[in-house]
């Protein structure tokens, strides 16, 4: 399987939203997300990341199999969303996208990449640890991380969450 990476364009957005919805099925029996009620990343946020942040897609046979997307906060990057179509899970595409994101963030001047994820599912915090991320202590939160957590509290159980960082 040959995988190629490229920057996302506006024409990709509906496929990216489709992949996010399909990928969320992996959470269906975890009790962590209400998969039927969840909303996907809105169009305008995709456009903002394409224009001023980082949005990279992975293609196999000219079809998008996964994507990674985020934004820059001052001198660090925030990895907001990573999704791979379940038809392509566990073939290394997620790891490839994370490496591409971290590399791009560095090229764009970020001194670290942060993300927020669930602690326990093997495809969340344990997956990111394999990609070199470490847990962030609450004492080391940056101001925007506390704001993000406060917003997440409306729809997520914060005890299931962890912020992670890769320098
Ligand atoms: C997270 C996600 C993108 C991983 O994509 P992927 O292409 O399947 O991941 P990879 O094949 O690159 O896996 C990298 C490593 O993680 C492990 N891993 C990935 N998914 C796993 C799973 N479901 N169970 C156990 N291990 C898993 C792989 O075995 C591999 O380990 P190795 O390096 O020891 O071989 C995918 O599971 C997904 O789309 N999940 C739903 C959305 C999500 O949770 N996004 C991230 C939250 S911020």
Short description:
The protein has 167 residues and is of the alpha+beta class.
Describe this protein's structure:
- This protein is an alpha+beta fold and 167 residues long.
- The chain has a single domain (4-166), classed as Gcn5-related N-acetyltransferase (GNAT) (Aminopeptidase, 3-Layer(aba) Sandwich), CATH 3.40.630.
- The protein has helices at 13-23, 43-52, 93-107, 125-130, 143-152; strands at 4-7, 54-60, 63-73, 76-84, 113-118, 134-135, 161-166.
- β4, α3 (93-107) and β5 (113-118) form a beta-alpha-beta unit.
- The mean pLDDT is 95.
- The structure holds coenzyme A (COA).
- Coenzyme A binds at residues 23, 26, 82-84, 89-95, 117, 122-124, 127, 130.
Secondary-structure blueprint:
Elements: E1 4-7, H1 13-23, H2 43-52, E2 54-60, E3 63-73, E4 76-84, H3 93-107, E5 113-118, H4 125-130, E6 134-135, H5 143-152, E7 161-166
Parallel strand pairs: 4-5
Antiparallel strand pairs: 1-2, 2-3, 3-4, 5-7, 6-7
The chain binds coenzyme A (COA).
């Amino acid at each position: 399987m040959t995988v190629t990476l490229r920057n996302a364009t506006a024409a990709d957005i509906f496929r990216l939203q489709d992949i996010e919805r399909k990928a969320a099925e992996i959470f269906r029996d975890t009790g962590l997300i209400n998969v039927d009620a969840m909303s996907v990343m809105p169009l305008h946020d995709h456009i903002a990341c394409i224009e001023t942040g980082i949005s990279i897609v992975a293609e196999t046979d000219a079809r998008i199999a996964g994507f990674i997307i985020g934004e820059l906060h001052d001198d660090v990057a925030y990895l907001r969303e990573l999704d791979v179509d379940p038809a392509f899970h566990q073939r290394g595409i997620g790891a490839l996208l994370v490496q591409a994101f971290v590399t791009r963030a560095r090229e764009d001047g970020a001194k670290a990449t942060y993300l927020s994820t669930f602690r326990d599912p093997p495809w969340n915090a344990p997956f990111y640890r394999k990609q070199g991320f470490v847990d962030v202590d609450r004492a080391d939160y940056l101001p925007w991380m506390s704001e993000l957590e406060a917003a997440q509290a409306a729809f997520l159980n914060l005890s299931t969450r962890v912020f992670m960082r890769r320098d």
